[in-house]
Amino acid sequence: MIRVLLFLSLFFLMLHARENPFFPVQSGEDIPLTSNQTTKLPMLKRATVTLPSTARTIESVTVTYKNLDGSIAHKKVTIQNAIDWHLPIFISQNYNESDTTQFIEKQSKKSSKKIKYKKVASLKFIAFYVKKNKLKILTKDKILRNFLLVKPHRIVCDFKRDTDIGSLIKSLKEGSLFTKIRLGTHKGYYRVVIELDGYYSYKLDYIRGGYIITLL
């Protein structure tokens, strides 16, 4: 009789035993809840990218975006166009054809206007004229050397002449690629320092009556 009672007791204990006694019982409060709610982000209007003064071409654009499942993906578009680093690059979904047409027409009118050299500084033996990325130097003096220096970025030109004129400092108007012209005298030559608004290479060409510096 005792054996029968022990057997029945063990049988009922096995029926009510948990599958794994080493883990606690999960209640409704213990089970983590998931949510389909997503963070509400504002619609893209326009983003602006400003490039450094060393930039000359834009090779490609890569967009990193998030999919519905939360995964991150990338889309690369090859462009390979020349750019003006002074102007920002815009990213926008607000495409307005009429605004774009007006902008293109306005730019065409600007480009169609003939831009002339403007005199920005002069002495009795040298004069400086600016047009966009070109600096015309009119002088009869022979150029001895020319080179580029940084911090600030500037072009240095030495001209042969014995003179004692002291110094000349001329700041150019805002928006010019050439920001300042400085002239100082040395024994047997005078030095012209042309400060720039960013990083450039340049070429110097000989013309009748002087020289032309072109920023690249």
From TrEMBL:
Residues 132-209 form the AMIN domain. Pfam families: AMIN. InterPro entries: AMIN_dom (IPR021731). This is AMIN domain-containing protein. The lineage of its organism: Bacteria, Pseudomonadati, Campylobacterota, Epsilonproteobacteria, Campylobacterales.
